[in-house]
Amino acid sequence: MISLRIGTGRSPRPGSLWRDRDFLIFWCAQTLSVAGDSFALIAVPLLVLNVTGSATQMGLLTGVAGTASVAAGVFAGVLADRFDRRRLLIACDVIRLVLFATIPVVWAFGTHIWLLYAVLPLAAAVGMVFQVTYVAAVGGLAGEGRVTEANGMLYATAAAAGVLGPTLAGVVAGRFGPTAAITINAASFALSALGVLLTRSSRYAVASAETAGPAREGRPWRELLAGAEFLFRQPVLRTLTILLSFFIFMTLGLTDIVIYRLKHDLGQSDSVVGVVLGVGAVGTMAGSMLVARVRRSLGFGPSWIGAQVVSGLAILSLGLAGSVWGVAAIMALYLACVSVAGICSMSLRQQVTPPHLLGRVTSAFWTIHFSLGPVGAAVLGWGAEHRGATTVFVVAGASCLVLALVALLTPVRQRHPERA
After folding, report:
1. What confidence category does residue 143 fall into, taking pLDDT thresholds of 50, 70 and 90?
2. What is the rounded distance in angstroms from the CA atom of residue 250 to the CA atom of residue 326?
3. Alpha carbons within 13 A on the beta-carbon side of 8
4. Are 230 and 359 in contact (CB under 8 A)?
């Protein structure tokens, strides 16, 4: 663990993460929250598909929600750096609890697709604020020396919860309907809020108003730009931001296409969809448990680029898999690599960013990173419905391989960019 930091100095705080009460409470609460999120991950596409039968509608809804998330990302970092992060996390959870709870309540009186277009973008926007604040909070809770370990622990147990979550979501959706699964997701936000409430507020502080300097002097547009300026001054972060923007274009809607392939092409039930995505989550858990060791052994560049190569090959293979278990196994491999690359990228940002800028840098990264995602999700949905899921997987996989090759020619290939 590390102590609170003033300016950019970072001094280690002795002790194990396993003995840190605040981190353990935070860890457990977020694990339960992710388990609930996995219900919505399954239930919302199923709700749309069951009512409309359209992959285009699935992709469009994902795209609209993604657009709202990108828009919120512009301001999320300022909120995370300006306001009490603990209170902000709790507020985001409470708002999402209310938003998701409205879906089963209204749906009880009839099917209303319009409600999803109203609720999900708002929930996505609040979710972006939560995620930016969450990343900034982990930096303070764990510290630079243990941030990769902490991220790995959070991802691993979240993935473990995600193994059971999609399976149960599929069963619940198949037996009681997708709205029942969404109800469980709403309840999970209450657990997350309670967990954050039980941690000490002092663990979320990073700098006083004096040390934050001009960023606190009421210059909102300067604050908005501070994160982007830092990103683009750092060569590795700059290149990662650009490469990952194209990666998200090809992959944001991938889960929708997998669900469409299982339901439309392979004729599987909602329960089977849940099982397949649950098996896929095992890959996320495996990647999260291995990422700290992989990065120590290979360094950042080889770990990140290698994960991208295997991800591209896995997506290509999804277009060729003709069995349910083949899709499940490939999804596990794909998600393992995504977690390795994602944790490496996030940990590097946490390591090289001054604490008082971490919220804005994270916000700027995700805003730019996700900017092409909504368009990509809509395009993938349209492509699956009109050209077939196989074509979409082949094009997306080949594009990811090209991005990995481009990365070999950039500063991303460095083994230890955090030392620069």
Report:
1. low
2. 21
3. 6
4. no
